[in-house]
Amino acid sequence: MKTDDLIEALAAHPQVVNGRAVEQRFALAALAGVCGAAVLMMAFYGLRPGLAQTMGLAMFWGKLLFAAALAVGGVAVVRRLARPGRAVGRTAVALAVPPLVLWALALAVLAQAAPDDRLGLVLGSTWRTCPFNIAFLSIPALAGSFWALRGAAPTRPALAGAAAGLLSGALGALVYALHCPEMAAPFLAVWYLAGMALPTLLGAVLGPRLLRW
Amino acid sequence: MEIEERLRGLLLQALEADAAAYQRFLKELSAHLRAFLRRRLAQWPHAVEDLVQETLLAVHNQRHTYQRDMPVTAWVHAIARYKLVDWLRSHAVRDARNDSLDDAAELFSSSDSEAAEARRDLAQLLQTLPDRQRLPIVHVKLEGLSVVETARLTGLSESAVKIGVHRGLKALAAKIRGL
């Protein structure tokens, strides 16, 4: 087929193109990811006892805010990576702010604590399972955001996969916070981030394999 | 900047379903792509037109990823670059290993009259698609029938025809990639 024939064919019967298709897919993916994580959380872990009382604690909301802020930053970055010719640029800063704030808070808490209490503040009582639970709950969002990316055109698949993984990890952590009994900033600063790092790494590995177009 | 303005104007009209503007857009784009790819595929002149077509198909299939505030040139360049790197990765290594004796012949076989001839025949690839995708593309895209006429002719529903065209073009792009 000659190129001119191809052009004619492609231009025949054009349709109005939906310029928001990428965002719509990500919105659907995030929604499905949160719902999927909620189902897994209820099935395997359950809500933490005394959730209603915990809701009066600032740290409970801080946990949710931290995860939500990273999820928002993740969406902002991944939707740029989904489009050819879009630079990530300053948007990446949005991803650095939540961890930096959390680390600063964690260091402040550790500095004020008695030396003997410090290790306990970092390890909490669930450090062995926390990262894996967060990673597990992030699976539905990871599947969803890869589906969304496959409907777009990421030219840097490893980076796009990692961003999708981070977004999924943040959504997983958001839901996991409803089960998690830990309230100390030093714990969150280490193990929540480790939990989000797992799907981020997985996304970076899967990206080049699954996101070709 | 002049090119950017003109291409952007045409693309924005095309995204509002203006066929004439879309055709002019793709036509102008193909000329730029050909020059861009010819410079970078100096060792593989026969592949230039294949990649021009593959890139045009990608631009078409991914046109929903364009946003009004983006420079069209940057958007197309990113797509062309991605397709070029992808091609080089899969072919360059293989070709370097089996550097053939056809080189002398190839040297004289490239001329401007061949500009529009692709080595890979898209029409042949089209034959490998299932009927529900192939027929809508043939009737709607190649013969220029309307969706309604195609639906009547093939017995498919109208939405099935539209979906067939859409999925068929995606499948075609995937087949090219697999070659």
Task: Tell me about this structure.
The complex is a heterodimer of chains A (213) and B (179). Chain A has one domain. Helices cover 74% and strands 0% of the residues of chain A. Chain A has ten helices and no strands. Chain A has helices at residues 3-11, 21-44, 51-54, 58-81, 91-112, 115-123, 130-137, 139-150, 157-176, 185-210. Chain A starts with a helix and ends with a helix. Chain B is globular, with a radius of gyration of 18 Å. In chain B, helix 1 (2-15) crosses helix 2 (19-40) and helix 8 packs across helix 9. Chain B has two domains: 1-104, RNA polymerase sigma factor, region 2, helix turn helix motif (Rna Polymerase Sigma Factor, Chain: A, Orthogonal Bundle), CATH 1.10.1740; 121-179, Orthogonal Bundle (Arc Repressor Mutant, subunit A), CATH 1.10.10. Chain B has 179 residues and is mainly α. The A-B interface holds A 1-19, 21-22, 82-86, 152-153, 155, 212-213 and B 14-20, 22-23, 26-27, 30, 49, 52-53, 56-58, 60-68, 70-71, 74-79, 81-82, 86, 116-118, 121-123, 137, 140-142, 144, 146-147, 162, 165, 169, 173, 177.
Largest interface: A-B, 31 and 56 residues
C-alpha termini separation of chain A: 22 Å
Largest sheet of chain B, in brief, is: none
Q: Bin the helical content of chain A.
A: over 70%
Spans of at least 5 consecutive residues with low confidence of chain B? 105-115
CATH C-level of the largest domain in chain B: Mainly Alpha
Largest sheet descriptor of chain A: none
Order of helices and strands of chain B: HHHHHHHHH
Number of strands of chain B: 0
Q: Please, what is the oligomeric state? A: heterodimer
Termini of chain B, distance in Å?
A: 36 Å
Note the beta-strand portion of chain B. Answer: under 5%
CATH topology of the largest domain in chain B, anyone? Rna Polymerase Sigma Factor, Chain: A
Mean pLDDT of chain A: 93
Q: What would the principal axes of the Cα set say about the shape of chain B?
A: globular
Tell me the radius of gyration of chain B: 18 Å
H/E element sequence of chain A: HHHHHHHHHH
Uncertain spans of chain A: none
